Automatic annotation (TrEMBL):
It comes from the Eukaryota. GO terms for biological process: cellular response to oxygen-containing compound; double-strand break repair via homologous recombination; positive regulation of DNA-templated transcription. This is Histone acetyltransferase KAT5. Residues 272-549 form the MYST-type HAT domain.
Length: 558
């Protein structure tokens, strides 16, 4: 379908033929990322727009629809700010112009809003990263049910547009503010928020005479649990507290710069956007990598990259692997075996004591984790590798890493189940094991953000099943409805309070009824939970865990 007279270059967009999940032909729009010529034939590396990057592939010219070819637009390149692509340098003049253009959407209040913006610009100084900037107070329109839209949907009202302009004035706000839906209140209290460093901050003080606070659930507040009963009241949207981070939000406002695999969008260039390894042979499995991984350049041209499944050393040929296996004495990951039940074992590996293995593990994991960038400093991390045992040894199934000292209560930095073992319950087993370690440590934990799409699905499923399991086991006293607090759920499960609240919101269980919060467990919720638990055969047995937490604040432990 490709026309030889028209040259397809990098950056072009056009429909490309591919097979969907039903093995049917479809023509999604794709972008050409790279062009190469092999054996006198051109190949094109394409990224399907609005599809996950793991579906990117090399395609032949006959799969291109040249009739709808779109050439890239020539735009003047602008310098980047803070190392993030697509952001302009902070120019007060440009930002002021943008601000006024936004405010012009409503000419009736133009003078008032322009005066507020001019005053804020005169008093504002360039803030440092992470500091809170004073924001001018103003009145906002009452929030009605008709205005409740998703955060990703822009609202064409003056209040929303002014929030965007204020976010562009102050450099501390990484991205433009978006409208945040709030729960309907009896008094329709006016609210306005601006997103600063991923945290929704209130610009208006609390109104006097309010009877209750409906924007978050008090973690110590008693919540009644109703089963098989639907209350006669509307559901109330209850976001987490202002100082918390919604665990269901997969993208933080700024990249974390710590971690064995940390998020850093400044490295998302044309090289890292393309898969560089065609195939990996690991034991009895051959894996097709999903994403780029920084293996040595000379190995990327090989049709197959061979890994020792016990020490994860990478080799360029089968002959080299066979020679290595005669000298490799490992039949399990290095480190201490801290859990064994049946054929499942967990090994704890210190990133400082076993640096080579840890780095090789990160290289392998990067093939299947897109939202992370690999760094070779594994000293501050512990790696927990799950294995499956047979007569030949302990074969790696998946792993998760965690910081030895986390100031943000992270109990997981990276987590991965290798593709041959996915959709078999191992992902939830890894998550459950991470929380069992948190229980032994006497802490609550949460995974490091951002989560991948598959990671977010796994965590939501685990949180939902764990919390519902507790709620359904509650027994009533004196014939009354059972009661529980958010803090109690968090202490029982070691799941952070913000994750508990976001899960209850996700399941739409929290309601406000006759002056108190209630959790409503409908028959559909209960039946769905029971069916899911019947399929979940793999569980962690705390009795088989032999783990003693260390105080990593003492440097001698390192």
């Amino acid at each position: 379908m490709a026309d030889s007279q028209v040259e397809v270059i990098e950056g072009c967009r056009l429909p490309v033929l591919r097979k969907n999940q039903e093995n049917e032909d479809e023509w999604p729009l794709a972008e050409i990322l790279s062009v190469k010529e092999t054996a006198g034939r051109k190949l094109y590396y394409v990224h399907y727009i609005d599809f996950n990057k793991r579906l990117d592939e090399w395609v032949t010219p006959d799969r291109l629809d040249m009739k709808k070819l779109q050439f890239p637009k020539k735009e003047a390149k602008t310098p980047t700010k803070n190392g993030l692509p697509g952001s302009r340098p902070g120019s007060p003049e440009r930002e002021m112009q943008n601000s006024k253009q936004v405010v012009l959407q409503d000419t009736s209040l133009l003078d008032i809003e322009r005066k507020n913006l001019d005053q804020s610009l005169q008093t504002a100084t360039a803030p440092s990263r992470g500091k809170t900037v004073p924001t001018p107070k103003r009145k906002a329109d009452p929030v009605s049910l008709a205005m409740q839209v998703s955060p990703a949907t822009p609202v064409s009202t003056l209040s929303a547009s002014v929030e965007v302009s204020q976010a562009s004035i102050y450099p501390v706000a990484r991205e433009p503010s978006t409208f945040t839906p709030k729960a309907p209140r009896d008094d329709h209290e006016p609210l306005t928020t601006v997103t600063t460093n991923g945290t929704a901050r209130r610009l208006m003080p609390s109104q006097p005479g309010r009877k209750r606070k409906a924007n978050c659930v008090g973690t110590d507040e008693i919540i009644k649990v109703f089963q098989y009963n639907s209350p006669r009241c509307a559901s109330v949207y209850l976001p987490p507290g202002e100082d918390s981070q919604d665990s269901s939000d997969g993208i933080p406002s700024a990249p974390r710069m710590t971690g064995s695999l940390v998020s850093d969008r400044s490295h998302d260039d044309i090289v890292t956007r393309m898969k560089n390894i065609d195939c990996i042979e690991l034991g009895r499995h051959r894996l097709k990598p999903w994403y780029f991984s920084p293996y040595p350049q000379e190995l990327t041209a090989l049709p197959i990259l061979y890994l020792c499944e016990f020490c994860l050393k990478y080799l360029k040929s089968l002959k080299c692997l066979q020679r290595h296996l005669t000298k490799c004495n490992l039949r399990h990951p290095p480190g201490n075996e801290i859990y064994r039940k049946g054929t499942i074992s967990f090994f704890e590996i210190d990133g400082r004591k076993n640096k080579t293995y840890s780095q090789n593990l990160c290289l392998l994991a990067k093939c299947f984790l897109d939202h992370k960038t690999l760094y070779y400093d594994t000293d501050p991390f512990l790696f927990y590798v799950m294995t499956e045992y047979d007569s030949k040894g302990f074969h790696i199934v998946g792993y998760f890493s965690k910081e030895k000292e986390s100031t943000e209560d992270y109990n997981v930095a990276c987590i991965l189940t290798l593709p041959p073992y996915q959709r078999r319950g191992y992902g939830k087993l890894l998550i459950e094991f991470s929380y069992e370690l948190s229980k032994v440590e006497g802490k609550t934990g949460t995974p490091e953000k951002p989560l991948s799409d598959l990671g977010l699905l796994s965590y939501r499923s685990y949180w939902s099943q764990t919390i519902l399991e507790i709620l359904m086991d509650l027994k009533s006293d004196n014939g009354e409805r059972p009661q529980i607090t958010i803090n109690e759920i968090s202490e029982i499960t070691s799941v952070k309070k913000e994750d508990v609240i976001s899960t209850l919101q996700y399941l739409n269980l929290i309601n406000y009824y006759k002056g108190q919060y209630i959790l409503t467990l409908s028959e559909d919720i209960v039946d769905g939970h029971e069916r899911a638990m019947q399929k979940r055969h793999l569980r962690i047995d705390p009795k088989c865990l032999h783990f003693t937490p260390k105080d990593w604040s003492k440097r001698g432990k390192w």
